[in-house]
Input
Amino acid sequence: MVRQRFWLGSSSLVVLVLAYTLLSNAYRFFEVSKLPEPIGSALQPDVLPPTQAIVQAVVDLIKGPGAQPPPDEPAHMHHHQHSSDHVGVLLQQGVTLQASLAITIARVLFGMVVGAPLGILIGLLMGLSRRTDDYVHPVYVLVRSVPPLAFITYIMLWLGHTEAHRLIPIVYAVAATMVIPTYHGVRDLASTYLVAARSLGARGWLLMRRVLLPAAGPAVLSGLRYALAIAWMTAVGAEMLMAENGMGNLIVGGGMWASRLQTRSDPAVVMVGILALAIAGWLMDSGARLLTIRLTRWAR
Amino acid sequence: MSLVQRNRIKRALISLGTIAVVYGVAAEVGRYVLPHRIWMDVHYIDNVELLPTYRSLAEEMAFLLQSWILPDSILVSTGRILAGFVLGAATGIAVGLATGRAARLEYLADPWMMLLRFTPALALLPLYVIWFGYGEASKILLIATSVAVVVMLGAHHAVRGVPQVYLDAARALGASPRLIFRKVVLPAAFPQIFASLRVALGLAWVTIVVAELIDAKMPSLGYLLALSGAYPRVPQMLIGLGTIAALVFLSDMLALSLHAKVTRWMRRTG
Amino acid sequence: MSSDSPRLRLEAENVGYTYPGEPPTRALEGLTLSVADNEFVALLGPVGCGKTTLLRIFAGFLTPSQGSVRCDGASVDGPSWQRGYVLQESSIFPWMSVRENLEFGLVAKGMEPEARRARSDELLHLLGLSSFEAAYPKQLSSGMSKMVEVARVLATDPSMLLLDEPFGALDAQTRARMQDELAGLWEQRRKTVVFVTHDVEEALYLADRIVVLTARPGHVKQQFKVTLPRPRSLETRFAPEFAALKRQVWEVI
Output
C-alpha cells in the first residue's frame, strides 16, 4: 500500500510537470495568440512561465548578485523573457533565495518562541480558574476576531518601519492561536486526572508537572503545529506588505510600500517563491509532527 | 438564570467596561501627550490622532455611515468572502470526499495537496493577479483556494475517520457501498466537515483583509485600514478594525450555532 | 465518648446540590446521612439520582448548595488523600507506567524511592499485577486498569475510601473477583468506605449498611442494615438471608 502511494504520487507529480512544460513551451512551436481566448493569452510566457525559466530563476536567485550580467547589457533584458525583470530588481537589492528563506524562518521562529508561551500561559490561567476565565474570555474572543495582519498598519504609525512592527502581528497570531488548545487541554482533557491526582494528595508543582502537563500535552502540541502554519502565513503576509527582505518581499518584487502589487511581477519568481515556501513549510511541519509523536508515545 | 451565569455576565461586563474606560482616559491623555506628526518613510504627516477619542470615533463613524463608505465596504468585502467561501467549500468538500473514499485518488492528489497545504494563501495573490487581473476574480479565487484546501483536508479526514464499526454494521445489514456512503459515512463525517468549515471561515477573513490591504482600493474593508491617501485617518482605521472584528465574531457565532443545531444528535444527553 | 457508639466519620445534614445549566438540575435535596468509623456503606439508587454528586461532595470537589457536610467534625475543605477517591471514569494516568501510577500518591507524600518501591511491590503482589509493573495503561484491559486505580488509592493508606461504581465497566467474572479482593482487603485493614453502585447484589455482598437513594433530586429513601456474617464468601451469595435481603431491597428501589 505504501508502495502504491509512492508510485501513484510520484507519477502524478511527474506527469503534471511534463504536461506543464509542454504547455508553457507551446508558444515556441506555434502562434499561440491565434488561439481563442483565454487560452491564447494564457499560454504566453508572461503568464505561464516555461519550466526552464522557473529553473533559471531558482538558479539565479540562489547564486545571487554575482550571477547577473551588468544591467546595461541587452542580453540581460531578455534573460527571463519577462518584461518586468523582477529577478534583476531583486538581485540588485541583494536578495537571494536562501537568505530570504532564512529571514522568513527566523521571523516565524521568533513568533513561535515568544508567542507560544504567552498563549499557553493565558490558556492555562483561563482553564484553571473559572473566575479568570469569566474575566478574560470575552476580551480574548473580541481581540482575536481581528486578523493579526489587520493591525499592521496601525502599529506602523506607532513604531514606524521597524522589525518590531513586523514581528508583533506574528507573535500575536501565535499567542492567540495557542490559547484555545491549551484551554481545552486543561479544562476538558486534564480535569478527570486532576481530580484523581488531588485525591491522592498531589498539589502545586507536582500536580502541574506530572499531571496537568502530560494530560494537556497532546492538545497543546497539536495546537503548536497549527500555530506554526499560522505563523508562516502571517510572516509571509507581513513581508508582502511591509518588509524589504524575506520570502514575502521576494514574491512581491520589492516595490514601494504603497503599490506593492502594481509592478507586474514575474510569475516564474512567484512560483519559485511558492515552491520554496511549500517545501520549507512542509519540512518544519514534519519536524513538528515527529516531535509530537515522540513526546506522546504513551497515547497511541 | 443561575448564579454561575450571572457571575459570568457580570465579570464579562466588568472586564470589557474597564477596558473601555481605560481607553477613553488614555485617548484623552494622548491628545496632549502623543505626537501628532508621524514620519512615513518619505515625508511627515500631520494631524494624526494616535489614540482617537470617543468623540473623534463617533464623528468618523457618522461620516463613514453618511457617506455610505462603511456600508459599501462591508457589502463588498462580505460579498467577496461569501462568493469565495461558497466556491471553495463546494470544491473542497467534493474533492475531500472523493479522496477520502478512494485511496487511489488520494495518492494521486497527495503531492498537490501537500504543496497547496503548506503554501500560505497570500503568496498566491501575485500569481492570481497576473493570471486574473486586478479585479474581483483574483481576490475571490484566492479566498476560494484557501478555503478549499482547509475544507478538503477536513472532509478527507472526516471520511477516513468514520469508525469502522459503523461501516461493518451497515455492511452486515446488506447495504450497498453507495448507500453506506450516503447514509452512514456522510452523516458521520458531517460534524468534522462543519468544524473545518468554521476554521476556513476564519481563514477567509484573514485572507481577504490582507488581500485588500495589499491592493487597497475603495470600497473595501481593507481599504479602511490602509495607509493610503494624503494622511492616514486613525479613527477610520480603528473603525475598520472594529467592523472587521464584529463581522468575524458574528459570522463565527453563526457558524457555531449552526454547528450546535446540526450536531445535536452527537451530544450525549444527561 | 461511649465505647459502643463508634464515632462518626462523615456527616451530611440536609445537603442539597444544584448543577448550573439551562435549566439548572437539582441533583440532591434534603439528604441527611452519616457514616461511622470503619463502616462499609453502599449507596444504591437509580441512574442519575445524585450518587456521584454526593461522593464528590464527600471527596471535597463540590460544595453543597444547601446544608452541610462534616468530616471528623470539621467541614470538608477540598480534597485530601485521607479521603481516597476512585472515580467512575477511567482516571489511570496514561503517561505513567503501572508502578509509577501506584507510587504517585506516595510521591505526593514525599516518601523516599526505596520505601515507595517496597510499597508498590507489595500492592502489585497483592493484586497479582507483578508482571505488569512496567506496562502502560494502553496495554491493560479495563479490568486491570481499574484494579490499578483502586490499588493506587490504597497505596497511601487512607482511613476513608470513596468508590464510585468502580466495577461498573467490568465483566461479571472480573467484577466478582474484584468484589472478593475488596472485601478481603477490607477484612485485613478496616477502613471507612462509601461505595456507590447500582448493583443490589454487589451492595449486599460488600456492605454493612445499604442506603437507598431516591431518583433526582436525591435524598435518603431507606436504609438497610446488612446482617450477613463476615467474612463474606461465595457461600454468602447463596445463603437464604442473602436472597431475603435482596428481595427487601428490590422492593424499595
